[in-house]
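Aim 2, interim progress. The first record below pairs a target sequence with its structure tokens.
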Amino acid sequence: MSTTAVPLRPIAKGSLTRLWVGIAAVALAAGGLAWAGQQGVAASPAAFLSQNAGEDGVVTTESGLQYKVLEEGTGASPTTSDVALVGYKGALLDGTVFDENPQAPMPIDGVVPGFSEGLQKMKKGGKYRLWIPPQLGYGDADNGPIPGGSVLVFDVTLHDFKSKAELMQLQQQMMQQQGGMPQPGAMPPAGQ
């Protein structure tokens, strides 16, 4: 078995150094572009909301909440005296998801003002995207993974809602069925 040697030309002096300098320059440029791209996302909430208001289908309320109907629901809308069963995903403008739940009960008056306002615009079965400005969310204070001054972006599905009174009545009925509460008007056993 024979091996044929192929003569290689020697690398010119300094070529390897120029190659590494070029690679480093490209890496720095890519890092700089990535950083600059993130700075655009981190632009002021007011600038984002102003630009977003002009997007197709986006409605801005008097309070500053922005929403887009993704799927229209049917029937009535919940009020502040109701508890809603919702599926939601909450994210920041950069796409970082801070909370998600496919089915969660929420008192309409027990959430941030922007989320409450958005829920009251929805109907059963509806799906909305909400952009909640800082003043209708957590304001300038950090809240767990949510930095102060953040616009909150929620995709929300309203599965159902009931009044708090209806829920209390259902709860009492369930307890009665399980033997946890006496029936209304029932007499205590003799001797008690």
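The second target in this work package is listed in the same format:
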Amino acid sequence: MEATTTAAAPTVDKDPKRVKRSIK
């Protein structure tokens, strides 16, 4: 899960809603 958060970090700026769903 930690690896996903790191890869999603830069995506947060592009799709903050999508990242929130991935973290959940």
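The longest helix spans residues 2-12. This observation will shape the mutagenesis plan for the next reporting period.
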